[in-house]
Here is the input.
Amino acid sequence: MLTKQQNKSLARSLKAISHPLRLQILQLLAEQELSVGQVHKALKTNLSQPAISQHLRYLLWQDFLLFNKVGRQIFFRVNKHSVGWKIVETVLKEQTA
Here is the structure.
């Protein structure tokens, strides 16, 4: 049985991936490291770049993403060691099997 803190952490991770756009972002960033602008362009969505940036920040805060700053640009990638990503990866594998 999980501890109270572990349950809270798991609930936060599940909440983070409950948004369809965040799942798309994670799938995209699992393939390659991208900047906010590149993510925005690849998603082909009507959302503004600042809105995409907020989703990236939320995923970063929940430990789903890592970042690398190059000059003024920030490049994001999936944190493949996070528990949250392992959940997403497992579900994606099941869906495509």
